[in-house]
Every structure is written in C-alpha cells, then in structure tokens.
Amino acid sequence: MICFLFFTYVLFWLTLSTIKQINDLNKPEISHQTRFRSNRTLYFVINQLFQLQINLVLIDPQILQHLFIHRLPFDDIHRTFITFAIVEESLQPLISSLHDLKLSMKTSETNSRNRKHLVDHIFIKHHRLTVHVAVLHKYSSYYRIHVNHQSLPKNVHLPFGDKLRAIDYFETELHEYLFYYPRNVSHFLWLYDSSEFIHCNRRLASRMKKKYNIHESMSQLSLIVKPMVHIGQSLNQLQKHYWIAGGTLLGWYRHCGLIPYTGDADFGLFYEEYDESIRSHFLGNPVTHIWAALGLVNDSLEFRLSSGRYVFDLFWTYREGNNARWYGYQAQRSKYRRSLPLFSKVCSGDLFGYRFSVPCSPIEYLDHEYGKNNWTVPLQKDYGWINMKYHSMWNDISWMYAVRLYSPEGHLRSDELAISWVAKRFNYTYASVPSFLNVLPNETVTLPPLKSEFVQVKSQKVEEQKPVEKEEQRQEEEEEEPEGEGKENENEGQEPNEEEQEEDKNAEKPDTEAQEEKQNEEERNQNEPEEEDVDE
Ligand SMILES: *[C@@H]1O[C@H](CO)[C@@H](O)[C@H](O)[C@H]1NC(C)=O
Ligand SMILES: *[C@@H]1O[C@H](CO)[C@@H](O)[C@H](O)[C@H]1NC(C)=O
Ligand SMILES: *[C@@H]1O[C@H](CO)[C@@H](O)[C@H](O)[C@H]1NC(C)=O
Ligand SMILES: *[C@@H]1O[C@H](CO)[C@@H](O)[C@H](O)[C@H]1NC(C)=O
Ligand SMILES: *[C@@H]1O[C@H](CO)[C@@H](O)[C@H](O)[C@H]1NC(C)=O
Ligand SMILES: *[C@@H]1O[C@H](CO)[C@@H](O)[C@H](O)[C@H]1NC(C)=O
Known about the structure:
Blueprint: H1 2-24, H2 30-33, H3 42-51, E1 57-58, H4 61-69, E2 81-87, H5 91-100, E3 104-109, E4 119-126, E5 129-138, E6 142-145, E7 165-168, E8 172-174, E9 180-182, H6 185-192, H7 202-210, H8 218-237, E10 242-245, H9 246-255, E11 264-270, H10 277-282, E12 289-296, E13 299-306, E14 311-320, E15 324-331, E16 334-341, E17 346-351, E18 354-359, H11 362-370, E19 389-393, H12 396-401, E20 403-405, H13 416-423, H14 433-437, H15 452-456, H16 465-477, H17 482-491, H18 498-527
Parallel strand pairs: 2-5, 11-14
Antiparallel strand pairs: 1-2, 3-4, 4-5, 5-6, 6-7, 8-9, 10-11, 12-13, 12-20, 13-14, 14-15, 15-16, 16-19, 17-18
One 2-acetamido-2-deoxy-beta-D-glucopyranose is lined by residues 440, 442-443.
Membrane topology: Single-pass membrane protein
Domain LicD/FKTN/FKRP nucleotidyltransferase: 241-276
GO biological process, one term: glycoprotein metabolic process
C-alpha cells in the first residue's frame, strides 16, 4: 500500500513537472528538453544564448563531419572543446549575455588601429566544456578569422584561430538543437581546406608606389576585378581548386593589387581535377565567356575567357615526376612549357576585399617563374622570360584539335577566323578544315591531301621554322606578360570578322597602355640607382 501511494505520488510529481516544462518553454525544441535537462551540457549553453538571440554557427570541421557527413547523432559528441562562430555584430551582445548568464569567459584580442572590434575569440567555460566562439570579420566576399592569442591546454588544436584564415560567405540553416550550421557542409569543408590566409607583401607594395611611382589605374580595377571574382567564384562552385597565377599573382603579392599595365588575368588549375564542367560553365557565359580552348585536354590545355574588354586565361598544370608541374603556352604551332614547383594545396589571399586562392608559398612560386628575387623589382627591358622552354610542335593530327574557338553564345566556330587560325599553320588543304573543327578529339580522322605548294616544292617546309624563331626572339624581348602579345600575334595577319575585331581592339588597348607604362617605368628605372635588396 505504502509502495503504491509512493508510486502514485512520484507519477503525479512527474506529470506536474512535465506540464510545467511545457508551459515554461513554448518552443519546438521541447521534445529534446528531457534529454538535455542537465544544465551541464553544451545544449544548455547554446539554448541560453539562442533565447537571447545570439546565433552561434557551428564551424568545427570535425563536428560538422560527424553530424552531417557521417550523419551520427548529436548525443555521440564527446568532445569538450567545440568551435562555433559569430558575426562581428553579435560580439557585444554575446559578451553582455555571457555576463548576464554568469558564464565564465576568456577572450583573445589583437591590437589594431583600423578595426572596430578587437576581440577575435571567446572561450566560454561551462563545467568540463569549452565553447570556442570565433569572430567572423567581414570583407567584401569573405570572413577573416584571426589568430588566437589566448593560452590553451596543450592537447587542444583549434580548427579556427590556429592560423589566420579566410572563408567565403556561406548560407546557414537552423539545427533543431538551436545552433546554425553551413547549409552546404561538404562545400564548407572544401573551402576550409584552402582557408589559410596569406598576406601580400605590403612593404614591397609601398616601395613600388614610393620608389617606382607605380600606381594602380582605377579604371582598370572594376573591369578586371569583377570578372575575376566571377571566375573565382564559379570555380569554387564547381569545386575546382585554382590559384591566381603569372602576372596576376605578381601583382597581388608585389603590389597588393594589380600590376598597373596588366591587360589580362591568369589562373592556374590542377589537371587532376579536369572535367568538362568548366568548359560547359563558361560556354556562352554572360559575364565571361570562353572564346578559345587551346591545346588538348591532356596536353597544354588553356581556356581563354573574355569579358568583352579583357582576357582571362585558365591554364591547366600537369604533374611531372615527384617535384614539379608544368603548364603550356601555345604560340603559333609551337608548344612551350613553363615549370612550377609541385604543390597540392592552395591558400587564400585578398585582392580588393575579395578572396582569391593563391599558392601557399608565393615567394617560391614567383622565384620559379621569374628567377630568384628577380621579381622584387620591376623587370628590366632585357628581361629574358626564363621559365619558358620550347617543347615541340603540334603534330598534324593534334593540331586540328588544338584550337577551338567559340562564339559568345557558346557555339563552336567554323567561320573564317577559326578556319584560318588552323589552316594558316597547317600543311594540308584549307578546304577540309571546317569539318575537322566539328570533330571530337576521340574520333579517328584521316588527313586530307597535302597543300599543293607542299606537293610541288617540298623544300618549303623549312619556312615553317621561321616564325618559331621569331616567336622565341620576341618572347625574349617581353617583360612579364608574354601571353598578352602572344594572343595578338596569333590573330595577326588573319582576317578577323567583326566580332573578332572587337576582341582584338579590346586586347590591344590595355597592351598599348602597357607599353607606354613600361617605357615610362624603364626610364624611371634608369634614372634611379638600385636600392638595397628586398628581403622577405
Ligand atoms: C544547474 O542545476 C543545478 C541543480 O539542478 C543548480 O543547483 C545550478 O544552480 C544550476 N546551474 C546553472 C548555471 O543554472
Ligand atoms: C554543395 O556545393 C557543391 C559545390 O558547389 C554542389 O556541387 C552541391 O550540389 C551542393 N550541395 C547541396 C546539397 O546543395
Ligand atoms: C595525350 O593523349 C594522347 C592520346 O591518348 C597521347 O597520344 C598523348 O601522348 C598524350 N599527351 C600527353 C602529353 O600525355
Ligand atoms: C634574373 O634576370 C636576369 C636578366 O634577365 C637574368 O640574367 C638572371 O639569370 C636572372 N636570375 C635568376 C636567378 O634567374
Ligand atoms: C567521344 O566523346 C563524346 C563526348 O565526350 C562521346 O559522346 C562519344 O561517344 C565519344 N566517341 C567515341 C567514339 O568514343
Ligand atoms: C607539316 O608541318 C610541320 C611543321 O609546320 C612539319 O614538321 C611537318 O613535317 C609537315 N608535314 C608534312 C607532311 O609536310
């Protein structure tokens, strides 16, 4: 009897307390409330902050993987140190809330003249748990997460705060346990892998301004940078790693901007990640459309994109052995190769407030391209393009596939320009070229008859060698951007149609400016003796 009474009493008490709880928390999360009744849990902290309208975003890569990739339950998380993020605007409200809730907190701050908020990280200690909150500092297209200076137990490795990192804006969703998380977790994790942030060289950049009087031309900026942002974001969306390359990389690192006489922008890509998605994306693209694909997929592939005003080059880089990569450059029918250090990971850099991927060791990369320390001063007139080696000529069959031109609407061109581009350096009859322009490289072809002049005068073959020598010589006269002129050269002497003329004019304009700029710059250089060497 006593037992029964006691049992009834307990039952009554339990029912009462449940009703009370339902009344207290008229919220959808009630179903979890029982499981998280203990105020010692992570859930307790998150919940309290959520009630105060502080939106924590889970950014801890391991936990995200656990919950959303492996789809394991929240209750299985046994980590005592978990990283969340908040946007800068929530920083003050969070700090006051933590005071109100009497939760203990430590912060990491960085002194900086030009930042409103100095707090970069907050560590909320709650029983055995530490909730790490990283502050997302906002830039035009991304958040920066600063390095943590608060001392932590030895066994704790912070996924954010370990290094300076940058991560593109991302959309979030609300989890049933009242924290936010990136809507596309796998993409967030992909971005995280290239989030390490590398600074450009401010010292060199200000030297360029002061000593060489090289300034950015503002009119260039939006015309080049906007399409560049579009290209970078497209490649991110397709999850293809890229890095800004060539003169664009030099501009970023040495000028913290663009080289003033830049007429185009270069991007490098890993051949291992090649698939047709990139070509498809840029065919007929309204912002930057692909207008030429040069080379073969497995050999010297380069996509030339156009914004109508500027040219943007995507170069695929191919692995060679265990410590190098190479990428191609096509001039007329010759193949050149440039070598690069081997790297498998890219980092993040800032260009005018936007995040771009950059090589993680820009100095090593630039040394490779321009010669050790040669790039730290504006290049001299007699600069030899050291990182460019003649490789071979496209053979007859490959050549037919090595040039593909596309209309702004994304159609393969077999108009006069497209035909003459191939036919001009082709020893087979002109008339049959159009049909090859529509043939896929995987289909077998038989060569058409030789051009009549070859049949008649065999010795004329030698003539083909001449432009190559010229090309090499020309390249030696070049400064930083052999591509710029190479492009024009390829169109030279051909009869461009209207559309192409436009393309040409556009390509010429920046280059003419470039020449003038270079001239002025060189004059300045001659008047000014060398200063001390710049060390990094
Ligand atoms: C947690 O709950 C215990 C008892 O359930 C209570 O004594 C304590 O004050 C609570 N702590 C907080 C931070 O609410
Ligand atoms: C996540 O992002 C990747 C890369 O942009 C995309 O391919 C994928 O479809 C996205 N997944 C979802 C569920 O939206
Ligand atoms: C590219 O593929 C073709 C056909 O499979 C092959 O003959 C050629 O050697 C390859 N080129 C390179 C650079 O691997
Ligand atoms: C630097 O450039 C000069 C002039 O082009 C060249 O002779 C020299 O070999 C280059 N240095 C290195 C280390 O590549
Ligand atoms: C060639 O490639 C295209 C698309 O890449 C494919 O549709 C076609 O079947 C291939 N042809 C042969 C003969 O393999
Ligand atoms: C075609 O031209 C290339 C170079 O332009 C040359 O190497 C090749 O031998 C020529 N082929 C024939 C069949 O004449």
